[in-house]
Amino acid sequence: MLLETLLENTPATTASFSKRLAMDAVATSLRSFMFEEVVPDSITRKRSDSNERSQFLVSWMDGKFL
User: Fold this and answer.
1) pTM as predicted
2) Dihedral angle, C-alpha 27, 29, 30, 31, nearest 10 °
3) Using a CB cutoff of 8 Å and minimum separation of 24, what contacts does 48-55 make?
4) How far apart are CA 4 and CA 26, in angstroms?
5) What residues contact residue 27 under an 8 Å CB cut-off, 6+ apart?
6) What is the CA radius of gyration of the chain?
7) Which pLDDT tens digit goes with each residue over 19-61?
8) Distances in Å between the alpha carbon of 51 and those of 4, 39, 45?
9) Which residues have C-beta within 8 Å of that of residue 65, sequence separation ≥ 6?
10) Residue 1: enclosing H or E segment and its boundaries?
């Protein structure tokens, strides 16, 4: 992750302490959402293209369709 690389390359000095602390907090927050598992409510529609690839219209628990 780019943020982790920046954090590793930011000098650990008193002057950069607040920047490093903020970057560490953002990196921790991003890691917690990076691999969130979301279960769909249902598959509403399926279609296949000319290359036999399937596309699905999915209904999610929050009411959105993607």
Assistant:
1) 0.46
2) 80
3) none
4) 10
5) 1, 3, 4, 7
6) 20
7) 889 999 998 888 887 776 777 889 999 999 888 899 999 988 8
8) 39, 27, 18
9) 44, 57, 58, 59
10) none
Task: Enumerate residues 6+ apart whose C-beta is below 8 A from 58.
Answer: 40, 41, 42, 43, 44, 65, 66
| DSSP code of residue 48 | E
Report CA 19 to chain centroid distance, whole Å.
Answer: 22
Phi-psi region for residue 63, left (φ > 0), alpha (ψ -120 to 50) or beta?
A: left
The amino acid sitting at 33 is F
CA distance linking residue 3 with residue 9, whole number of Å: 10
